[in-house]
Amino acid sequence: MLFPTITFAVFLTLVLAVHTVLLKRPRAWKTTMLVASYVFYAWWDWRFLTLIWISTIVDYGTGIAIHASSDPRRRKAFLVLSLATNLGMLGVFKYADFFVTEFVNMMADLGMTVSARPLGIILPVGISFYTFQTMSYSLDIHRGILRPTRDLGDFALFVAFFPQLVAGPIVRARDFLDQLASNQRAPLDMGRSMQLILGGLFKKVVLADVLATRLVDGVFADPGGATGLETLLAVYGYALQIYGDFSGYSDIAIGIALLLGFRFPENFDQPYRAASLQDFWRRWHISLSTWLRDYLYIGMGGSRRGKARTYRNLLVTMLLGGLWHGAGWTFLIWGLLHGVGLVVGRILRDRRGEAPVGRLGRFVRVVATFHLVCIGWVFFRAVDLDRALEVFGALGGSWTSAPSLDGGVVALLLLGLVMQFAPRGRTDGFWASLGRAPVVVQAAFVLVSILGIDLLGPDGVAPFIYFAF
Question: What is the pTM of this model?
Fold first, then answer.
């Protein structure tokens, strides 16, 4: 079930109606929200609900067992059970075919024939997100910073809550369960909710999908048929496409959660205005970058055991972050590029310190960081390594021929860049006023906005990019 569809609009309307009726009956409200979340996920493929149930039951039980035990070995054993279950599911459904294929290819290169072949396993939508959520729950209990919930229904709703189930943000248990247990939903902020949901729809349907259909997809499908300038604009276009697509999903998810009384942390903060790769990861997919930092980087020792191990930890963290995004060499290279970039940046800071930077220096750093990120996006977007190299090769093509772009695409490219630097909060007053307006005015504004977004966007609704991860 995709957010920008009539089906989801009907689903959300029913959920909000039930939410309003049952708000003062917590147990009935929670049960209804859990059923709605399962319906939302089952709309894609009901069979994969089994995986969510396995993750829910295992981590609910291991969380209680970890907390109840005073024996370090037993606590660690239950933690390993939780991690092995979740990582095992990820390994089978996300990586098994990749490793089988690579093994067969390696044996063929050595002159040996292996009869093994890919199993054709379908990747369950959202598995990378809800497994990371439940693992953070077990890890926090093991570290002593979270007490387990004894309410299986509460925990099941934490795992399956539909707004952010299939593509994040990755919500920590301590952020969600505390709000759920209090039975006190956050005050309704209709203005902020409309700002997030309508803004997210615009980012997805207009910015991301138009750039994809009218620029990016064509160039990445046939780099040899594009001029050097068209290829460069397509690379910029993909940087803005993936930002609009993923931050759009996150905004919609956070806005819907707010309508249901939950406040989720921000997941994007104008990432292309970053002045370093470290700054970029403070702004891009914040819930994932903080997860990798807290549970992987710090878990390996962080920066506490000398410079060499710090650099190693950065590199390993980003390599595994790349692998998390997909089973393919292009994702590993993407992670490696970011890891090397973070290591180089750390080495320079260790040697020079944090020297003050003027406006010109910051501008140069922002431009350089943006282009480093774009280089990585080429590998991230390309279907394989050969196609990525073709795109880089096409950048050296003709720059004298005028690119075959219409004005709308150019305007979107400029708008996407402006969005990264526009002062934040300038329109908060408008949305706050709209949130206090009569319901009829709000409904009319939403309807006109959705019709306008639909008019500007391409025909049909493309799946969100991160559904594939």
Answer: 0.91
